[in-house]
Amino acid sequence: MLLIISHYGYLLLVLLFSLVSYWYFSRTNQLHRTMVTVFTAFISLRYLLWRLTETVIPFMGSGNEISEMIWVGSVFFFETLMFIEMFIFLLIMSKYNDRHLVEHKPMAFYPTVDIFIPTYDEPIDVLEKTIIGARNIDYPNFKVWVLDDGKRDWLKDYCEEKGVNYLIREDNSHAKAGNMNNGLKHASGDFVAIFDADFVPNRNFLKKTVPYFDDESIGIVQTPQTFFNKDPIQTNLNLHMEMPDEQRLFFEEMAPARDGWDAAFCCGSCSIVRRKALDEIDGFPTESITEDLLTTLSLLNHGYRTIYHNETLSRGLASESTEGYFVQRERWCQGGIQCMLLKNGPLRMKGLSLFQRLLFLPYGWIVQPLGRLFILLVPLVYLWYGLSPIQFVTTENIIDYFVPMFVILTLSNLWLTGRKYYPLLNTAVGIFSTFRLLLTVIQTLIKPFGRPFKVTPKGSNNDDKPNIEVFTLVCSLVFFFLTVLGIVINTVPELAILDDVEFFPYAVIWGTMNLIYLFISILLCFDFTSQRKEERFDACDYTLFVNNNEVNMKDVSVNGFSSEKIPDVEKNDYITVTLFNNDADKSMTVTGRVVNSRSLTAVNIIHVGENSRDRMIEVLFSGDFDKLCP
C-alpha cells in the first residue's frame, strides 16, 4: 500500500489540484493564476531534474557507445529547450490584464487622427469594406488615407468617389513600413490609426482607444485582430463550429497576459500610435519586415509603452488558404528573428530589462519547429536504429514523473487559455507548420535580410481553385509511412530490427500519437474552396418583413440573405424586403430576386446606386450588426 502511494502520490496530487482549480479558481484572479502556473512549473521542473540526474547523467557515465550517448544527450537537450519555452509561456500566462473593462471619462476634446490603410494588390471586394468602414467611424476629427503601393488608377478614382485621401509614392522601398512613412509626410494628426487593407474598423474604434493617450507614457494601443471568415485550419478540418480560429489563443489570452507584464506589442493592423512618439524614432522602422514589433521596441527604448485593449473593435479576413497561412507565418518568423539581430532589437537595445529581453525574443519561432521535429524523430530513430531516447527508466518512474507532468501541463493549459487550446488539434497544427517554418528558421539564421516582403493573398486575389500544400504533404506522408512501417516490422519476429524491446511499448504509443498528428496534418494540406463571393453572417433568426409577412432571417451577406420560407413567393420573383426592422436607425429596405424557395428562401439583393451597397457594408462590417445579433 505504501508503495502504491509512493508511486502514485504526485499523480493524485496533480489530479486533486486540477479539480480544485476547475471548481474554485477564477481565471481573472491574479493569485489563482499564479498558483496554477507555479504548481505546473514545479511539477515540470521536478520531471526535468529527474531526467537529468536519474537518466542522462548515469547513462553518460556508464561507458556506452558514442552514438547512443550523442542521441540520449540530444533528446534531452531539445527536451530542455521545449521546457524553457513552456516555462516562458507559464510566466507570461501567470498574469492577465483585461483592459476592455476600463471606463474612460468622456473626452473634453477630440485630438486629430489620421487613419492609414496601406495597400499593395488587394482587390476592390476587400478594400471597399475597409474604406467604407473607416470613412464611417463615429469620431469628429479624422482623415482617411489610402496608401497605395500598387499605383492603381481605379483605386484613385474610387477614393475620390468616397471622399477619402489617396497617396502613392515613386517606389516600393521598405514595403509596408516605407509606405506608411510616406503617409507621415502628408498627414499631420495627433495620432495614426492603422488598418490593413482587409480589416474593417467598428464605428466606435477611436472613441474606445484615443482616451488611453491621456497617459503620456502610452505610445501604442493595440486591439485584437478578429476575423469574419473561417481560417484554413477550420475550413480544411470542417471544425469551424467546434473550435475557434487559430489566432484566438494569442489575441484573447496571450496578448492580455503580456499586457499584465507591460510587454504587449504592436501587431500592425487594428492599432493606433501617438504621432509625437513616431516622430521621435523617425517614423516606422524599416530594418525588419515586421515593422510593428520593431516599432514597439523602438518606442520602448524612448520611454513609451504599448498597451492592449482586449475588445473586438474591428474585423478582417483570416488567411483563406494554406499558402496564405504560410506566407503570413513565415513573414512573422523571419521578422522576429531579424528584430533579434538588430541594434534596436531585444538583445542589443540599451535600457531594456533582462525580463523584457526575454519576453521579446523570438524563442518560440526558433524552438517550436525544432522541438516538433524531434517529437516525430524519436520513435523513428528507435524503431529503425534501436537507439532508445531514455535509459534506466521503469514503469514506476513513468507513472511517478512523466504522467503527472503530462497531465498538469495539459490541464493547466486548458484552464489558462479558456478553451482556446485543444491539445490534440493544436499539436497537430504545430506539426503541420513545422516543415516549412523550420526551413524559414534555417534560411533566416543563415541570411537574415534580403528576402522580399510577401503580401498575404486575400479576397478575390486568393486562388479559389483546389490547392495542395505539396511540401508539407510529402514530409507528412514520409514520416507517416516510416512510423507505420517501423511499428509493423518490429512486431514480426522474422523482420524485427530491435534487439532491446524494453522501450518498444512506449515507442508504439508515441508513434501512434504521431500518426494521429500526421494524419491531421495531411488533411490540412488540402484546401477546400469557397463557393461564396461574400462572407455570410449568422442572422440569429432576426425578424424581417416581406409583403406584410414576418419571417426569420437565417444568414445575410452584402449580396443576399436566406430566411424561413416566405409565403406566396416563388423562384425568380422580385420582392421588397425591410431588413433589421426592429431597429429603425439601422433598418434598410432593399429589392431582391428570389433564387431558391424550397424549405428556405434565398434572395439575391439588387443594389441600386452606391448608397445601397455601402449601407449594407456599413451595417454588416462596422459593428452595428454585432448589436443586432448578439
Describe the structure.
This protein is of the alpha/beta class. It contains 20 helices and 16 strands. The chain has helices spanning 2-24, 30-60, 66-93, 124-135, 153-162, 175-186, 205-209, 232-237, 248-260, 275-280, 291-301, 322-341, 354-360, 363-385, 395-417, 423-446, 470-489, 504-524, 610-621, 624-628; strands at residues 113-119, 142-148, 165-167, 191-194, 200-201, 218-222, 226-227, 271-274, 305-308, 314-316, 537-546, 549-556, 560-564, 574-579, 588-597, 600-606. The protein has a seven-stranded mixed beta sheet with strand order 3-2-1-4-8-6-9, sandwiched between helices. The longest helix is centred in the first third of the chain and has 31 residues, at 30-60. The model has no long low-confidence stretch (mean pLDDT 90).
Helices and strands, with pairings:
Elements: H1 2-24, H2 30-60, H3 66-93, E1 113-119, H4 124-135, E2 142-148, H5 153-162, E3 165-167, H6 175-186, E4 191-194, E5 200-201, H7 205-209, E6 218-222, E7 226-227, H8 232-237, H9 248-260, E8 271-274, H10 275-280, H11 291-301, E9 305-308, E10 314-316, H12 322-341, H13 354-360, H14 363-385, H15 395-417, H16 423-446, H17 470-489, H18 504-524, E11 537-546, E12 549-556, E13 560-564, E14 574-579, E15 588-597, E16 600-606, H19 610-621, H20 624-628
Parallel strand pairs: 1-2, 1-4, 2-3, 6-9, 7-10
Antiparallel strand pairs: 4-8, 5-10, 6-8, 11-12, 11-14, 12-13, 13-16, 14-15, 15-16
Helix pairs in contact: 1-15, 2-3, 2-15, 3-14, 4-19, 12-16, 14-16, 14-17, 14-18, 16-17, 16-18, 17-18
